[in-house]
Write a structure and sequence with these properties.
two-stranded antiparallel ribbon; 158 residues; globular; mainly alpha; single chain
């Protein structure tokens, strides 16, 4: 599955633009499919709230501070406060004092948050399976390799 090499800069730019548009369309399709699966589960979390749950879960040993979350999300701390407030109202996270410094508040998942996260991951997997269904096993393997190159390469450019 190869395509002819572009012969000039204009062709390369056109190809890149086309691929970029395809990636955007695929991302939107993935979000719609995931949203559909979440509706079936009766879970109403925004993509930002879902991402925050995943980030909190990433901190296995010590729950993160609000500043840690803001840094990982690349947003201002106030935006994190709004997200945490909504997740706390849903019972997915709770604020807990830091045992070493009682002025510091940490955010941890609740049992509800962990089960919600499992459901979110399940919906994401189901959406991916739905989107990847038309591909053969070999095509999936090639796509996986290409995506790994793009994901792993992203960190090297900064």
């Amino acid at each position: 599955m190869s395509s002819p090499e572009p012969t000039d800069g204009a062709s390369a730019a056109s190809t890149t633009s086309h691929v970029a548009e395809q990636l955007v369309r695929l991302t939107r399709r993935m979000h719609r499919a995931q949203k559909h699966h979440l509706e079936d589960l009766d879970i109403a979390f925004t993509p930002a709230q879902s991402r925050l749950l995943r980030i909190v879960d990433h901190y296995r040993q010590t729950p993160p501070r609000m500043a840690d979350l803001a840094e990982r999300l690349e947003v201002v701390p106030r935006a994190v406060t709004t997200l945490v407030d909504a997740l706390e109202a849903n019972g997915a996270v709770r604020r807990v004092p830091d045992p070493a410094n009682r002025r510091v508040i940490r955010i941890e998942l609740t049992d509800t948050g962990r089960s919600t996260l499992r459901a979110l991951r399940s919906a994401r997997r189901a959406a991916a399976e739905e989107i990847l269904a038309p591909l053969t096993a070999d095509q999936r393997e090639v796509l996986g390799g290409l995506l790994s190159t793009l994901v792993d390469g992203a960190g090297k450019q900064h």
